[in-house]
Amino acid sequence: MVGKPAALLLLAEHATVTIAHSRTQDLPTVCQEADVLVVAAGQPNLIGAAHVRPGAVVIDVGTSPADAGGWPATWTRPP
Predict the structure, then answer these.
(1) Alpha-carbon torsion 67, 69, 75, 77, what sign?
(2) 8 Å CB contact between 77 and 60
(3) How far apart are the C-alpha atoms of 75 and 49, rounded to whole Å?
(4) Residues 34, 5: Cα–Cα separation, whole Å
(5) Total-model pTM
(6) What digits encode the pLDDT tens for the residues 19-37?
(7) What φ, ψ does residue 25 adopt, rounded to 5°?
């Protein structure tokens, strides 16, 4: 519902787009190549700190319920 339309919008703006999913081999390495990582997996905690390179922007669509606090414990809440 989100991933493919987002990819098409980014492609229309001449971005290089890589589409991955939960069964992509070596998913952390694929994700670490991204400058902008759009996460719309529908699976809580599929992407974590090991998947994101320093300085990358993460857009988490977050369609699944999170842990009890509503924010993954390993992430820093934005200001």
Answers:
(1) positive
(2) no
(3) 8
(4) 18
(5) 0.72
(6) 998 899 999 999 999 999 9
(7) -65, 135
- Where helices occur in 1-79 by DSSP H, the ranges are 3-12, 27-32
Amino acid identity of residue 38, one-letter, is V
Please provide residue 19's backbone torsions phi and psi, each rounded to the nearest 5 degrees: -105, 130
Question: What residue type is 51 in one-letter code?
Answer: H
d(CA 63, CA 31): 19
What phi and psi, each to the nearest 5 degrees, are found at residue 61?
A: -65, -35
Beta-carbon count within 10 A of 37 CB:
20
Q: Are 73 and 52 in contact (CB under 8 A)?
A: no
Q: How far apart are CA 35 and CA 48, in angstroms?
A: 15
* Residue length of the chain: 79
Q: Give the residue from 37, 54, 55, 56 showing the smallest Cα distance to 46.
A: 37
